[in-house]
Amino acid sequence: MTHRVYNFGAGPCTLPLSALQEAQEEFLNFAGSGMSILELSHRTATYEAVYNLAQDNIRKLLNVPDNYKILFMQGGATLQFSMLSMNYLQGGTADYVVAGTWGKKAIAEAKREGEPRVVFNGADENFKSMPEQDEIEFNPDAAYFHHTSNETIQGVERRTPYDTGSVPQICDMSSDFMAYPVDVSQYAMIYAGAQKNAAPAGLTIAIISDEQLAKGPDNMHAYLDYNIHASKASAYNTPPVFPIYMLSKVTSWMLNDVGDLQAMYERNNAKADMLYNVIDNSGGFYKGHAAEKNRSIMNVTWTLDTPELEQKFLSEATAADLIALKGHRSVGGLRASIYNAMTPEGCKSLSEFMREFQRVNG
Ligand SMILES: *Cc1c(COP(=O)(O)O)cnc(C)c1O
Fold first, then answer.
1. pLDDT score at 1
2. Are 196 and 338 in contact (CB under 8 A)?
3. Could you give the domains of the chain?
4. Is 196 known to be catalytic?
5. pTM of whole model > 0.85?
């Protein structure tokens, strides 16, 4: 087989091998169409079957209630920062949790559309934690409450929704989407760029309640109007057919090989534990960034004593086929992104490398 490395990159990230192999096998002639999925029109029954499979799989995995739509769009989670505030803020006020880089970017776009309020700012403690329910003063007049369940760059996560009362809860789940069971009914809207956990880049998934959809204005630009995507089965314009196809493969892998999101969570948690155990038992050689209660099971972040030692770690890890472990340029240090498709073997291999690196350099 082709030589493959363990890719700990933050996104695009590693995909399940079986999904890649299936795509390879049917690449030149998809489903008897005599053409590649890359060439297939989105106005065909063949595409419709792909779309339906991806929709059904997500609905099953996340137990999405009937009164929610699942939308496939483009522009990444970044466009959602703008789009959700254009649709739902409309000059009003909204509550934002800023617990890391992505929350900060989300509120920056909302400021163009109204007067969002920061209800938690983690900047003072260098973004190490997520706020607890009682640390937030909720504003009952907010058009919505927005948070980021997993701050990808800092490696801090909160997997439980907040109790927002009657205020609609909107969550950027880009980097922990479908990584654990979620009670969708607690949210008015969940959105995620697909390239962390679900598919290659080029696709954004949003799950929105009918009640929230009904709040959209009627004068929105067509592509930026959630109701248009909802009423046209996400094919108002040409959808990203290939990422949607890969989404159908990845979610089928989750259902058939992993089982359900509880099993996915247990697998992810065990993977993360392998790395946090090494950090915790290193006597301070490895220093974890996140507060223990908010440690991410998707992005494990840590530092070493000096930049020179971190550089040595990175080059030796790369030589051992453990690649893309460099922390984000804004925070430095090291980061292992271990999304759904990262195998337990990959995490075991990294944890063994870390122990050996400490033995030699500690
Ligand atoms: C990666 C990421 C984004 C940005 O996603 P794009 O698809 O690149 O726009 C936003 N939020 C979070 C939490 C992310 O991890």
1. 66
2. no
3. 6-16+259-361 (3.90.1150.10), 18-257 (3.40.640.10)
4. yes
5. yes
